[in-house]
Design brief:
Blueprint: H1 11-27, E1 33-34, E2 43-44, E3 55-63, H2 67-74, H3 80-92, E4 98-108, H4 113-130, E5 133-141, E6 151-162, E7 177-182, H5 191-201, E8 209-210, E9 215-216, H6 217-221, H7 229-238, E10 241-246, H8 251-257, E11 264-269, H9 277-286, H10 290-296, E12 301-307, H11 312-321, E13 326-334, E14 344-347
Parallel strand pairs: 4-5, 11-14
Antiparallel strand pairs: 1-2, 3-6, 4-6, 7-12, 7-13, 8-9, 10-12, 11-13
Helix pairs in contact: 1-4, 3-4, 7-11, 8-10
Protein name: Phosphoribosylformylglycinamidine cyclo-ligase
EC number: 6.3.3.1
Pfam family, one: AIRS
Length: 353
């Protein structure tokens, strides 16, 4: 007789995973969260939005990409949640929106309760760091589609911003300065390139000690994505910040251009920062040209803010209070006729590390 379990799906394992993850979900609550996990939908009390004159809801959906392959190979699963939450909430805060709640989705070939709980642990801890609630999610067992030890994670998040406080291109002016915020490393983008260069082409093992990195390759590749949400909200609420850009796939120039009005251009000075060693390692080992590297990876800058020049000291002080390394890396000017090749131009060379 055929059964669901014989087909590769264990309801018992799923139930155990839910029990193990409950302790972590309970840590990622906000006062507006109604009930707990286990229902068909997560509930969030929206009555707080009555305090807004014109609340705009912001939403974002994303995943982690092929970084999960590194986590699976190393059998380390409690950090990947920071990558997921970082990719989600930091897309919201660039417009000034406060992340309110998040839901996750984990698909796996076989539910191993302890592994699922470790993934959710990371998601919940990251939600606490971002200040949003984890209101629910879904774990799906897909035997035959994914291998027994394979999984993928995705999620969505919702936030809110007062319409009159919305940040973006409409606020940016010539003379504004660009403040860079240091990344924690590769974050969660470009791992197809990184894995191709270091693991496939060079044949390096994840447990290889790399002197340039001061740790093993695997430890470097699993460094969690920095979550900027609270620091960026402090900028939006307490400084004359006009726009922000989350530096993800496409790199610094392409993502910054997304928040610029058509009439301006920006010059960024590479001499103002030194990227972490991993970026130079990928370029050197893989023979990756600087243009391709900058178009794929964050190269040491995970977020930028476009700010009023007269308020830049307060911006830098606010970021320092949140323990985010930052510096002025560029300036906004009127776009000229010679800006056909893109309105964000990088000049100079990074100092040697």
């Amino acid at each position: 007789m055929s059964t669901y379990e014989a087909a590769g799906v264990s309801i018992e394992a799923g139930d155990k995973a839910v029990e193990l993850m409950k302790v972590w979900v309970d840590k990622a609550r906000r006062p507006e969260m109604v009930g707990g996990i286990g229902g068909f939908a997560g509930l969030f009390d929206a009555s707080a939005l009555k305090a807004y004159d014109r609340p705009l809801l912001a939403t974002s959906a994303d995943g982690v990409g092929t970084k999960v392959a590194v986590a699976q190979a190393m059998d380390v699963h409690h950090t990947i949640g920071f990558d997921l939450v970082g990719m989600l909430v930091d897309d919201l805060v660039v417009c000034g929106a406060e992340p309110l709640f998040l839901t996750d989705y984990i698909a796996t070939g076989r539910v191993v309760p302890e592994r699922i709980a470790a993934i959710v642990q990371g998601i919940a801890e990251a939600c606490v760091e971002a200040g949003c609630a984890l209101v629910g999610g879904e774990t799906a067992e897909h035997p035959g589609l994914l291998g027994p030890d394979e999984y993928d994670v995705a999620g969505s998040t919702t936030g809110v911003v007062e319409a009159t406080h919305l940040l973006g291109p409409g606020r940016v002016r010539p003379g504004d300065l660009v403040v860079a915020m240091r990344s924690s490393g590769l974050h969660s983008n470009g791992y197809s390139l990184v894995r191709h260069v270091l693991l496939e082409q060079a044949g390096w093992a994840l447990d290889r000690d790399v002197p340039e990195l001061g740790r093993t390759l695997g430890e470097e590749l699993l460094e969690p994505t920095r979550i900027y949400a609270k620091a960026c909200l402090a900028l939006a609420r307490g400084t004359r910040t006009h726009a922000m850009s989350h530096i993800t796939g496409g790199g610094l120039a392409a993502n910054l251009e997304r928040v610029l009005p058509a009439e301006v251009s920006v010059t960024l000075d590479r001499t103002t920062w030194t990227p972490q060693p991993v970026f130079g390692l990928v370029a050197e080992v893989g023979g990756v040209a600087r243009e391709d590297l900058e178009r794929t990876l964050n190269c040491g800058v995970g977020m930028v803010a476009v700010v009023d020049a007269d308020d830049v000291d307060r911006v830098l002080a606010t970021l320092a209070e949140h323990e985010v390394g930052s510096w002025v890396c560029g300036e906004v000017a009127l776009a000229g006729s010679a800006d056909d090749g893109g309105r964000v131009r990088l000049v100079g060379a990074h100092p040697a590390g």
